[in-house]
Design brief:
single chain, three-stranded antiparallel β-sheet, 3 helices, rod-shaped
C-alpha cells in the first residue's frame, strides 16, 4: 500500500510539472479573432495576453463603433483562448491522474 502511495505521489508531481510546461507553452499558442466586417483584428495568446491589434483606417473615424468592435472582438478572442487553455490543461491533468474510482468524471 505504501508503495502505491509513493507511486501516486510521484505521478502527481510529474503531472504538476507537465501542467506548468503546458501553461508556458500556452504563451506560444496564438488566437486570432476578427470583427464581423474584418475591420478590426486581434491576436492574443492562449494565456490571454494581447499581442496585436489591427484597426482599419475607416474604423478610426468612428470612436463609438471602434469601442464596440474592440469589446466584442476581444471578448470573443478571450473566450476562445480560455477554451483552448482549459482543454489543454484538462488533458494533461486527466492523463496524469492516478486511477481512483469516480475521479474520471471530474475531467469529462
Amino acid at each position: 500500500m505504501f508503495g502505491d502511495m509513493m507511486g501516486m505521489m510521484g505521478k502527481l508531481k510529474e503531472t504538476q510539472k507537465k501542467v506548468e510546461e503546458t501553461k508556458k507553452r500556452m504563451d506560444t499558442v496564438l488566437i486570432d479573432e476578427k470583427s464581423a466586417d474584418g475591420s478590426l483584428s486581434v491576436t492574443l495568446t492562449a494565456n490571454r495576453e494581447i499581442k496585436k491589434i489591427d484597426i482599419s483606417n475607416e474604423l478610426l473615424s468612428d470612436k463609438e463603433q471602434l469601442e464596440d468592435y474592440l469589446i466584442l472582438t476581444l471578448n470573443k478572442a478571450i473566450q476562445r483562448a480560455t477554451s483552448v487553455q482549459e482543454t489543454e490543461l484538462a488533458a494533461v491533468a486527466k492523463e496524469g491522474m492516478p486511477n481512483i474510482p469516480g475521479m474520471d468524471s471530474l475531467f469529462k
